[in-house]
Design brief:
With about 260 residues, the protein is α/β, with parallel strands linked by helices. It has a single domain, classed as TIM Barrel (Alpha-Beta Barrel). It is built from ten helices and eight strands. It has an eight-stranded parallel beta barrel with strand order 1-2-3-4-5-6-7-8, surrounded by five helices. It is globular, with a radius of gyration of 17 Å. The mean pLDDT is about 95. Bound molecules: phosphoenolpyruvate (PEP). Belongs to the triosephosphate isomerase family.
Length: about 260
C-alpha cells in the first residue's frame, strides 16, 4: 500500500512572512482534522528563502518541506545554484527535479535531470521527478513515447532498490497553470505506461513501490476524480497550493477518495 502524497509547488511565490502565515493557518486546520494521524503525506516546496522558516515551523509536525530545484554538485563556483547538502542542512526531505518550467525556461535537459536525481538520492533527498508532454507532442500522438523517454533518461542513474525513494509527477505541460486539467482516464493511462516502463527498466513489480502523482490545474473540485484511480498516488499542485484552506481541502478530498478505494 503506497502512502498518498500531496505536494505543493509554490514556484516563485510568497515572502517569508507570507509563508509563515500560510503555515500557521494550514497547521491549525490540519491538526483540527487528525494532525499526526492524517493519512496523506504532505510536502510543501517554497522558494529557497522560506525553506528554513518553514522547516522550523513544521519540525515534529506531519508536513515535510522540499526544494524546487538543486544543482548536482555539493559546493563550488556555481553562482545562483543550490546544492543537495544545503537543502538537507536546511531541513528539506524532498526536492522537485525537472519541472517543465525549468526545462522550458532554463534549458534543463534529461541528462541534467538524471544527474540531479542521482545527487538528490546520494544526499538523502527524495526527488519528485516531473515528466510530461507538450500540447504539440500530444496532438502528434506522442504522449506515451515522450513520457517513456523522459522516465528512461531521467532515471538512468538510479538503482532498482532506490525506486521507493523516488516520486514521479506526471504533469502534461499543457495542463500546468492553464485551468485545463487532463481527463483522469487519460492521466491514468499515461501513469500506467510510466509504471510499465519502470517495471521494464528496473524489474517486474518494481513500480508497486513507486509513487506517481498527477499535476496540472489540480484543485479541490477536481482532485477526487484523479485520486479514485488506483494507479495515481497523489498530486503536485501549483496555483491551488498557495491558499491554505484550498490546499488542505485537496489533501482532505484525497484522503476520502483513497479511503473508498
Ligand atoms: C505545477 O507547477 O507543477 C503545477 C501543476 O501547476 P498548476 O497546479 O498551477 O497547474
Amino acid at each position: 500500500m503506497r502512502t498518498p502524497l500531496i505536494a505543493a509547488n509554490w514556484k516563485m511565490n510568497k515572502t517569508i512572512g507570507e509563508a509563515l502565515s500560510f503555515a500557521g493557518t494550514f497547521l491549525d486546520i490540519l491538526y483540527s482534522q487528525g494532525g499526526e494521524s492524517f493519512p496523506v503525506e504532505i510536502v510543501i516546496c517554497p522558494p529557497f528563502t522560506a525553506v528554513p522558516a518553514l522547516c522550523a515551523t513544521f519540525a515534529g509536525k506531519n508536513v515535510a518541506v522540499g526544494g524546487q530545484n538543486l544543482y548536482w554538485e555539493e559546493k563550488g563556483a556555481f553562482t545562483g545554484e543550490i546544492s543537495p547538502v544545503m537543502l538537507r542542512d536546511a531541513g528539506c526531505k524532498y526536492v522537485i527535479v525537472g519541472h517543465s518550467e525549468r526545462r522550458r525556461l532554463f534549458a534543463e535537459n534529461d541528462e541534467m535531470v538524471a544527474k540531479k536525481v542521482r545527487s538528490a538520492l546520494d544526499h538523502g533527498l527524495r526527488p519528485i521527478v516531473c515528466v510530461g508532454e507538450t500540447l504539440e507532442e500530444r496532438d502528434e500522438g506522442r504522449t506515451f513515447e515522450v513520457c517513456e523517454g523522459q522516465v528512461r533518461k531521467d532515471l538512468s542513474l538510479v538503482k532498482a532498490q532506490e525506486i521507493p525513494s523516488i516520486v514521479i509527477a506526471y504533469e502534461p505541460v499543457w495542463a500546468i497553470g492553464t485551468g485545463k486539467e487532463a481527463r483522469p482516464d487519460d492521466a491514468g493511462e499515461v501513469i500506467v505506461h510510466i509504471r510499465e516502463t519502470v517495471n521494464q527498466v528496473f524489474g517486474p513489480g518494481t513500480s508497486q513501490n513507486l509513487r506517481v502523482l498527477y499535476g496540472g490545474s489540480v484543485k479541490s473540485s477536481n482532485i477526487r476524480q484523479f485520486m479514485l484511480k488506483e494507479e495515481i498516488d497523489g498530486a503536485l499542485v501549483g496555483g491551488a497550493s498557495l491558499d491554505p484552506e484550498e490546499f488542505f481541502k485537496i489533501a482532505l478530498e484525497s484522503k476520502k477518495a483513497k479511503a473508498k478505494n
